[in-house]
Design a protein that fits this description.
Layout: E1 5-16, E2 21-26, E3 31-32, E4 36-37, E5 57-63, E6 66-72, E7 87-91, E8 97-101, E9 106-110
């Protein structure tokens, strides 16, 4: 007998980064889930690791007590930082940002701390102009 799957919305109460799993509180039910895996783009040969914070608003696909966290989403309290459709961005809590503007063909790294580049081979810089400050 198949159990019906249902889409549920809640907030992360605990997160285990070593297992990429979280527990989610569903306020409409007044319960907190068991440990649920967080859906990622890759996990076999390539590894996609974006971690959730406690309090993160997430969507879950649940079947009985089992389920998976589909991802986080914006709401009225937490709005997107970048409002331009042509810009893909990752903005960190400390203010650091990585952005790509596909209209301008411009990739920007804005880091509040150090940047470390490690290469097993060569590093090549090829540009029309390189400015060092």
């Amino acid at each position: 007998m198949m159990t019906e799957s249902v889409l549920r919305f809640g907030h992360v109460t605990e997160y285990d980064s070593s297992r990429h799993m979280a527990r989610v509180n569903f306020p409409d039910l007044g319960i907190t889930s068991y440990w649920l895996p967080v859906l990622v783009s890759n996990s076999l040969k390539n590894h996609d690791e974006t971690h959730l914070d406690s309090g993160e608003h997430v969507a879950c696909l649940m079947s009985g007590e089992m389920g998976v966290i589909l991802g986080a989403f914006y709401d009225d309290k937490n709005k997107p930082v970048v409002h331009e459709q042509d810009i893909r961005a990752v903005t960190f809590d400390d203010g650091s940002k990585i952005t790509y503007d596909r209209k301008e063909h411009k990739f920007t790294i804005d880091c509040t701390g150090d940047i470390e580049i490690i290469a097993a081979g060569n590093i090549s810089l090829n540009a029309g102009r390189i400015d060092l400050n």
